[in-house]
């Protein structure tokens, strides 16, 4: 039940983070800005997380891990309530910042918390169970938010998300026992941060994270536009395809979660190479066939569904003595990738060059696969 509660918190975090993606058109129309400006709500969110996460994780290092999780989920509740009453774009930006400040801290502690619940020999499995909330966010959270936004308005959809986040906080408080911070690794404060940032064993993982996430979000941030332009679906049709996309992502999480501990390199290559293959299919065959484009959009979710668990498991394998700070640095890399991807995609969208964003995503997948193939960071501990 504790793992389920943490998974529910992951669900609320991911759904809330990506609400501008699901409600892109509604937010743009009501706030009187362009769709690329709404995309900047994703970029700005990621930038704040990237800048704040490492010092905030160091600052909260002595906190009970359950308390840390509760505070960060409470920030999601407050953020969504503020967004729901935002009279204009400026207040919407502030609302997003409230959640962004706690976002990185939450993701820095949730995987180590799960690993403590199941034990060090099942790091990948524990991460996969908790990260099921991520996949459910894409399977249920985003399609449902998109549908609610179209039927009852985007503000009601955001209020509903705040309520779900509040329930997740209650579940954590009831089911997760207090988790005092374990004795830290040698080095404190700035010394510990410096060691985590300069750890060479983590550099390949962080590099792959930045590159593959940049490619993914260059397209995913504007997935509703992709569906409209390539698959020729809008409104309810978009929600249905997002639902299929989320189901494929959950399938990817299950498949990768089963094999990530025993075959880390193979799973990482499948994630990176799979992203490249799906983007190439969308780029080459998508414009000629809406059906092929729809298949590519759904298949794309399989590797992306395993992305976070494969990368997070690699971090926890490489940094057993300081998982929180190492995870914080990884979160920085992930958020830099989100910010770059959302920005790159927005630039191409403004220039009516969406295929260029798809090409960038394919290239990022290929480059990431090369790094994975040549790096020892993606081998199991027992392997040479």
Automatic annotation (TrEMBL):
Alphabetical list of PROSITE patterns matching this protein: MFS (PS50850)
Protein's name in the database: Putative MFS family arabinose efflux permease
Keywords from the named record: Cell membrane, Membrane, Transmembrane, Transmembrane helix
PANTHER family: CHLORAMPHENICOL EFFLUX PUMP RV0191, PURINE EFFLUX PUMP PBUE
CDD domains assigned to the protein according to its UniProt record, in alphabetical order: MFS_NepI_like (cd17324)
Topology relative to the membrane: Multi-pass membrane protein
Annotated localization: Cell membrane
Cellular-component GO terms for this entry: plasma membrane
InterPro entries: MFS (IPR011701), MFS_dom (IPR020846), MFS_Efflux_Transporters (IPR050189), MFS_trans_sf (IPR036259)
Tree of life domain: Bacteria
Key word Repressor present: no
Annotated ranges, domain Major facilitator superfamily (MFS) profile: 1-380
Annotated organism of origin: Saccharothrix texasensis
Spans traversing the lipid bilayer: 40-61, 68-87, 93-114, 126-148, 154-176, 203-227, 239-256, 268-285, 291-316, 328-348, 354-372
